[in-house]
């Protein structure tokens, strides 16, 4: 971040005012404070050279072990990966493979699954389409030996207007029928879609994207009915991803402590991944919404502006001192600066998003 040496925080933290009175940031202790990420690309160094198409998934052979070890070292313990009908030029090796599952397990990382293909195509979600999608997922589950009872999320990756309520209901009814209880069903979708499927009893887990303008998202998050919230997207320049041999893009996710201690992920031996409730509460409590159109981040309280955050987006509050909060913007546990506390609200009080001239920073 301009004007701020973030690595200095991890080494000594001596250059900031009040540093002696504040705890060291999480990642300086080996914990970023985030423990679930999702990523469309497989963590392989040779993925750009892999052919497109489903079979191209098996062409990824050189795991990015430095990246995976960095995740583990910084406290990440779960990676959400994809089933998808095809890989493509932008997401070679998108389909998770049995080999990738084993490599993740070697690094102590649990795996969760989401199916997503052409999620933003208008009128894609119908009962007939669900037949093909669910059967495809069952076939991929056999390939990677996904344990029965774990969850497959289905990505309805668009605002509610692109697909009718009836079509989405028919889709999830068909998925449940075809699964026949072999796997639990999750949905990744705008809040209005999650709530529709929850009320119909057609999914057990509900994952909300970082899309604060999408229909019903604010109401659903504030209702406390969600399982996962994808709070940061397209991170490529943080301690979690930087300097690891290739351009990496990850998203980070928060678990709802009130929704239980599982998201349907599984470990290398096929056991359900269970999370420590105390840690879930701590992670959620440290995330705050930005409530002003543009919240400036300063190198020191009242000092030089070195960054900003926009309304209805989250920051990780590392500590508070008087009227100021020490915050991390990109979920690697390292502080990016100070912001006013009166511009923040707890995670259970998402503000209403509104269009402003505030632009998201490249993180």
UniProtKB/TrEMBL annotation:
Any one Pfam family here would be Rv2525c_GlyHyd-like
Chain ranges of the Rv2525c-like glycoside hydrolase-like domain: 69-254
Name the InterPro entries for this protein: GH (IPR017853), Rv2525c-like_Glyco_Hydro-like (IPR015020)
Q: What is this protein called in UniProt?
A: Rv2525c-like glycoside hydrolase-like domain-containing protein
SUPFAM superfamilies (alphabetical): (Trans)glycosidases
Name the Gene3D superfamilies on file: Glycosidases
In its UniProt entry, the species of origin is given as Cribrihabitans marinus
């Amino acid at each position: 971040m301009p004007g701020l040496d973030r690595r200095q925080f991890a080494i000594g933290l001596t250059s900031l005012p009040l540093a002696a009175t504040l705890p060291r940031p999480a990642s300086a202790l080996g914990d970023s404070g985030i423990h679930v990420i999702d990523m469309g690309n497989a963590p392989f160094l040779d993925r750009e050279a892999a052919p497109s198409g489903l079979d191209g998934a098996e062409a990824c052979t050189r795991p990015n072990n430095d990246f995976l070890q960095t995740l583990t070292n910084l406290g990440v313990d779960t990676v959400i990966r994809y089933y998808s009908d095809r890989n493509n030029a932008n997401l070679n090796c998108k389909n998770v493979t049995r080999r990738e599952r084993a490599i993740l397990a070697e690094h102590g990382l649990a795996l969760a699954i989401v199916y997503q293909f052409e999620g933003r195509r208008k009128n894609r979600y119908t009962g007939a389409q669900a037949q093909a999608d669910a059967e495809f997922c069952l076939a991929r589950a056999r390939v990677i030996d996904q344990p029965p009872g774990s969850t497959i999320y289905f990505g309805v990756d668009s605002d509610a207007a692109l697909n009718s309520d009836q079509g989405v209901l028919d889709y999830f009814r068909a998925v449940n029928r075809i699964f026949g209880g072999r796997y639990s069903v999750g949905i990744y979708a705008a809040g209005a879609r999650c709530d529709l499927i929850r009320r119909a009893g057609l999914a057990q887990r509900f994952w909300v994207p970082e899309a604060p303008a999408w229909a019903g998202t604010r109401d659903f998050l504030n209702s406390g009915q969600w399982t996962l919230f994808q709070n940061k997207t397209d991170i490529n320049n943080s301690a979690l991803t930087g300097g690891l041999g290739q351009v990496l893009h990850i998203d980070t996710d928060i678990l709802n402590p009130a929704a239980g201690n599982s998201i349907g992920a599984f470990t290398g031996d096929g056991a359900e991944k269970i999370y420590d409730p105390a840690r879930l509460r701590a992670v959620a409590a440290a995330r705050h919404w930005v409530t002003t159109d543009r919240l400036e981040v300063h190198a020191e309280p009242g000092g030089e502006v070195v960054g900003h955050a926009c309304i209805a987006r989250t920051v990780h509050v590392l500590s508070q001192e008087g009227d100021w909060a020490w915050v991390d913007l990109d979920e690697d546990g390292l502080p990016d600066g100070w912001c006013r506390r009166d511009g923040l609200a707890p995670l259970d009080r998402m503000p209403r998003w509104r269009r402003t001239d505030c632009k998201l920073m490249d993180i």
